[in-house]
Structure formats: C-alpha cells, structure tokens
Amino acid sequence: MAVTGFGRNLTEDDGASMVKGTIESIQAGWLIENGIEAVIDARHPFSLKPNDTFSRMCSELGIMYLRVGREETALDANDLIVPVISMQEAAKKAVAIGRTIFLTTGSHDLEPFLEQREKRGFRLVVRVLPEHSIIKKCQDLGIGPKDIVALHGPFSKQINKALFKMYKASVIVTKDSGKAGGTDTKINAALSLKIPIVIVKRNIQDCQPCYGWEQVIDMIKEKPIKF
After folding, report:
1. If we measure between CA atoms, which residue out of 63, 61, 95 comes closest to residue 170?
2. 156 — phi, psi (to 5°)?
3. Structurally, how many domains does the chain consist of?
4. 63: domain range?
5. In this structure, is residue 74 part of a structural domain?
6. Cα distance between residue 218 and residue 48, in whole Å
7. How does strand 64-68 pair with strand 210-211?
8. In the record, what terms sit under GO molecular function (predicted)?
9. Which residues touch 45 (CB under 8 Å, ≥6 apart)?
10. What is the C-alpha separation between 171 and 49, in angstroms, rounded?
C-alpha cells in the first residue's frame, strides 16, 4: 500500500501487488475479503497520529500487526545542532539563523516556511521527490524552479555536502527520520561545512512495540500458514 504515485511505482517495480490509499482508509471488511494474515506497518515515524486505532482493529480480527520502527538519532552537544519539536518552531528558528534555508523534509511541511518567507523575505530551497504533482505543488505555492531540488535518495554525506554548497545553504532543516531516512548523513554533511542544522524531533511516540526489518521477516517466517 502506498499513497503517492512515486511510492506505488517503486512497489510495483519490486513485483508486489499494489493498493492505493492510506492505512487509515483500510476497513475490516477489506482485510477479511483479501485474506490478510499479517500487516507490516512501515509508515514514516512522522506519519503516525495520536490514538491510532488500526493496530487494535488487526488485533480484534486476529491479524498479526508488526510496526517497523526507526531509532531516534542521538544528537551530540553542538552549537550547530538545533533540536525543535514542530515544523512551526523549525521555521522560526531557521529564519533567525540564516538567509538561505535548505529544507529537506519534502513537500508536506512547506506552509510554515512560506509564511515566514512572506514576512522575512529569505530564500527557501526545497528538496522533494521527483514526481510531477509534487513539483507542481511547489511551483503553485510560489517556489521557483531554481529552488526546487527534485531528487530521490538515499543521499550520502558527499552528495548532501555538494547540494548544500551548490545552493549556498546557510541553514539546513530536517526531521529526525533515523538512519533509514538519512538523518545522520545530513547532520554530518552540515557539520563538516559548519552550517547550522535544525532538527525536528518526534513528538508522537509509537504506542506499539517496534521491530527492525530482520526481526519482522523472521516473525513472518515463523507464522503458521493458513490453507
């Protein structure tokens, strides 16, 4: 299951059957009709919502529910690292630090930065997925082509450094998406260039036990198969 066309294409390229939609849109009837025996919830940690009821529905139906977790990034004490707890706070902190903000959080969190840009007049560079609808959204919101970096990761420290230098970034903004989301390489790249980096920490904790991918695969293998 994937929400964006880009995510759907990646899934289909790997040979998986594809269902369009969000996990919140799944109904109990659909799970029963399709004979679902296990659900692997690999949503981005920032996609979680309070009082998520999907895991409870799986439990009531006797369906195995496994949440793939990402470890939070351990932040060193460094004046260049600025932890915050919301995108609104990140926008305010970033604009107080530099005049060219390089936003690496995608297209879902543009509004707080655009509001600050309207007030303060700084340059906003955004790195987003190379999908037409996402690029169009950025342009419709007033972000010009020269400030849209449409690339698909993962990004190494070297690639991040090259992009930060190319766009003359004076402050970086990222979410703490763990190592899987490249948070460590962004931090290392920013610090090596002595550029401040604002990091949005997770404000919603997983209410379910979390597992690594290897654990999930082992648990699925051990699950009895119904015929």
Report:
1. 95
2. -80, 170
3. 2
4. 5-69+206-222
5. no
6. 24
7. parallel
8. precorrin-6A reductase activity
9. 69, 70, 176, 177, 178, 202, 204, 206
10. 29
